[in-house]
């Protein structure tokens, strides 16, 4: 992503950001904390990472931080229960030995008395394990959900902090998509992996101690049994990475094709053009191809898992044979041998849990890197928009020699543009499609930083002010304003979220924008959702929506108002009323408006004409008509279109 002009690098602003930094720091050389979006490079980078020895350590550290930040209590409870479970497993082995000892005594003609206590103990411990497992499963589910929430919070923090320029970058958008997609499944996998790793490790240690207490020689043979599992699980995780990376583009296409067929906005056109069948076929084809690849992939994974487990089983068999030999030698008692068999079986399960946990963490590694790289963008983005407290308004706003090229474009959208707005003036921007009007409005609203030139509020370069602070003094109605699928109250109240409860002011803004009656007729008044997606909701006409967008800007009560084609969907009466009363409606505020309708433009104090990203003419309507240039030509063209039928009568 292109670094904004005023980016100064920067200190971390919160723990989430620290996390992002640290994973990058923890990673060993060659690790790539901000992976490329090229699938081949991603796969190669993932492979490099998996080979590094510190990789698992770095991932575990990051996983713990993520989980800890999500919910300490649930994390502690789950970990303690897992460790408790592991300790109990080791105790179970020792109790089994006591039971066997007691049974052998009974077999030798002794009374049943000595058997009672170990059997009761074994039953109690078994019940304890069952209860602890049930509690743990619930805690684990809760923890996974909380990690998911925390991941979403971090993701939304970044999405909200980055400048608009980021949304022009395919790299940013790809990463946002990937983090979003993964955020749904990876935190769960990560939590499971972490807990499995901790529990498996503790279980292995406990059982190893128990086995060593019977016969130390058994342990090395048993440890060897873990090697094939280790090798096969590493290969499996590598396969999983490659599969995930290779399938990402297909997955995105599938998601998109699903969206087009289920989206409300698309529904009209899909039906009008009869696209249901064609789109469905494409969706099915993409899904089938994925399913075929998944089958092949799973076959490979199964082959690996079978090979690993068979080899491991062979080592286990060798251990059991060794045990029989040790019993024959008299080095191990029958009770110890029986308990050792139980321990060996349990150890195999624990080793499996351990490797599965490590594998899950490895498989989440790509997601963690993506997330870390993504989260690390936040402090830089915030730093780029930081500055001195912004003044509440200006007497004069001056844009001097603004130049701006959209990321990825070669031709500038604005080229050496200078304009001026005095407080209280109504200034219009006109020009043909693509001449740069909206781009200039976005720069004046401080949504983009210019590549060259500067914007001054009372002779101070606005890049020295906090941009969010400046934006509090600006109200914009965009050409493609947002129709929030929220209540009527929120649709207007979001103009100034801090005053959302001020229903009187919201109602006043609605009256000024001519939408109060529409709200009055809604079934639940202000609480009616302006969307058919929710129960009791209502949709509005495009013109009514435009009035809602205007009401939102009026409610903001900002000294500088930008209106980008505010009347495009208004009927002629409403448009006339809007521009006739613009001065009253906006009472002394500075207004910049963009319009293609010259009948509305002529009311402006000053008009700037843009052509090919440059200001070519400026002045009042009368001055521009007198100049007889581009403006006059466009004005006459439009006027003639209206007058032609009448004159031809
Ligand atoms: N997000 C973008 N990325 C790349 N180029 C863009 C982007 N938005 C606009 N442009 C280009 O910048 C130039 C100016 O666009 P702008 O939207 O400012 O024009 P406009 O005068 O507002 O046009 P219209 O009257 O059609 O709304 C055009 O060449 C356009 O293609």
Shape: elongated
Count of helical regions:
24
Structural class: alpha/beta
Distance between the termini: 60 Å
Q: How can the largest sheet be summarized?
A: 6 strands, mixed
Just name the CATH architecture of the largest domain.
Answer: Up-down Bundle
> What name does CATH use for the topology of the largest domain?
ABC transporter transmembrane region fold
* Structural domains: how many: 3
Query: How many runs of DSSP E, i.e. beta strands?
Result: 10
Task: Tell me the CATH superfamily of the largest domain.
Answer: ABC transporter type 1, transmembrane domain
Low-confidence stretches: 1-37
Instruction: Kindly report the spatial arrangement of strands forming the biggest sheet.
Output: 6-7-8-3-9-10
- Beta strand %: 5-15%
GO molecular function, one term: ATP hydrolysis activity
Protein name: ABC transporter ATP-binding protein
Keywords: ATP-binding, Cell inner membrane, Cell membrane, Membrane, Nucleotide-binding, Transmembrane, Transmembrane helix, Transport
Domain ABC transporter: 397-637
Outline of this structure?
The chain has 649 residues and is α/β, with parallel strands linked by helices. The protein has helices spanning 15-26, 39-51, 55-70, 72-107, 113-161, 170-183, 186-214, 218-262, 264-272, 276-329, 334-363, 365-375, 377-384, 437-444, 467-471, 488-493, 503-512, 516-520, 542-556, 572-580, 582-585, 598-601, 621-627, 630-648, and strands at 396-404, 414-422, 426-431, 452-457, 460-461, 474-477, 560-564, 590-594, 606-611, 614-619. It has 3 domains: 15-380, Up-down Bundle (ABC transporter transmembrane region fold), CATH 1.20.1560.10; 389-473 and 559-649, P-loop containing nucleotide triphosphate hydrolases (Rossmann fold, 3-Layer(aba) Sandwich); 483-557, 3-Layer(aba) Sandwich (Rossmann fold), CATH 3.40.50.
């Amino acid at each position: 992503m292109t670094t904004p002009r005023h980016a100064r690098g920067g200190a971390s602003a919160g723990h989430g950001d620290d996390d992002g930094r640290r994973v990058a720091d923890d990673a060993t050389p060659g690790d790539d904390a901000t992976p490329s979006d090229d699938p081949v490079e991603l796969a190669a980078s993932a492979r490099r990472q998996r080979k590094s020895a510190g990789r698992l350590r770095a991932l575990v550290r990051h996983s713990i931080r993520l989980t800890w930040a999500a919910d300490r209590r649930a994390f502690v409870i789950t970990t303690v229960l897992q460790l408790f479970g592991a300790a109990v497993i080791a105790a179970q082995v020792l109790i089994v030995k006591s039971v066997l000892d007691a049974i052998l005594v009974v077999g030798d003609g002794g009374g049943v008395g000595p058997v009672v206590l170990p059997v009761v103990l074994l039953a109690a411990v078994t019940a304890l394990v069952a209860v602890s497992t049930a509690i743990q499963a619930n805690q684990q589910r809760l923890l996974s959900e909380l990690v998911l929430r925390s991941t979403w919070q971090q993701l939304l923090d970044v999405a909200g902090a980055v400048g608009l320029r980021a949304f022009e970058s395919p790299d940013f958008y790809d990463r946002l998509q990937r983090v979003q997609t993964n955020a749904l499944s990876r935190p769960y996998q990560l939590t499971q992996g972490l807990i499995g790793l901790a529990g498996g490790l503790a279980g292995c240690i406990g059982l190893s101690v128990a086995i060593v207490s019977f016969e130390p020689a058994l342990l090395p043979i048993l440890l060897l049994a873990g090697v094939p599992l280790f090798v096969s699980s590493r290969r499996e995780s590598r396969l999983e990475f490659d599969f995930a990376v290779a399938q990402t583009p297909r997955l995105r296409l599938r998601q998109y094709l699903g969206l087009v067929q289920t989206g409300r906005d698309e529904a009209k056109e899909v039906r009008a053009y009869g696209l249901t069948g064609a789109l469905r076929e494409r969706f099915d084809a993409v899904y089938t191809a994925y399913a075929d690849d998944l089958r092949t992939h799973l076959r490979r994974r199964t082959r690996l898992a079978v090979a690993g487990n068979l080899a491991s089983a062979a080592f286990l068999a060798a251990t059991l044979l060794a045990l029989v030999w040790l019993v024959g030698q008299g080095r191990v008692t029958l009770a110890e041998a029986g308990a050792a068999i139980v321990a060996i079986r349990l150890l195999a399960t624990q080793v499996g849990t351990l490797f599965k946990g490590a594998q899950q963490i490895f498989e989440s590694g790509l997601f963690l890197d993506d997330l870390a790289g993504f989260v690390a963008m936040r402090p830089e983005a915030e730093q780029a928009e930081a500055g001195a407290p912004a003044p509440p308004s200006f007497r004069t706003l001056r844009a001097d020699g603004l130049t701006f090229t959209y990321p990825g474009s070669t031709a500038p959208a604005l080229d050496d543009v200078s304009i001026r707005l005095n407080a209280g003036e109504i200034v219009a921007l006109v020009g043909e499609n693509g001449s740069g009007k909206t781009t200039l409005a976005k720069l004046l609203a401080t949504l983009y930083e210019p590549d060259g030139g500067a914007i001054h509020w009372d002779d101070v370069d606005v890049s020295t002010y906090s941009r969010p602070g400046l934006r509090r003094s600006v109200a914009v109605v965009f050409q493609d304003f947002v129709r929030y699928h929220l209540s009527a109250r929120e649709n207007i109240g979001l103009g100034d979220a801090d005053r959302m409860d001020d229903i009187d002011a919201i109602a006043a803004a609605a009256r000024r924008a001519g939408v109060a009656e529409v709200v009055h007729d809604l079934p639940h008044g202000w609480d009616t959702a302006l969307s058919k997606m929710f129960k009791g909701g209502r949709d509005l006409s495009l013109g009514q929506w435009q009035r809602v967008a205007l009401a939102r800007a009026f409610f903001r009560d900002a000294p500088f108002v930008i209106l980008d084609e505010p009347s495009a969907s208004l009927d002629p009466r409403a448009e006339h009323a809007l521009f006739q009363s613009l001065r009253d409606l906006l009472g002394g505020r500075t207004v910049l408006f963009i319009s293609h309708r010259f009948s509305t433009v002529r009311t402006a104090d000053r008009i700037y004409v843009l052509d090919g990203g440059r200001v070519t003419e400026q002045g009042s309507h009368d001055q521009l008509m007198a100049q007889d240039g581009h403006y006059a030509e466009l004005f006459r063209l439009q006027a003639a279109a209206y007058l032609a039928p009448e004159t031809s009568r």
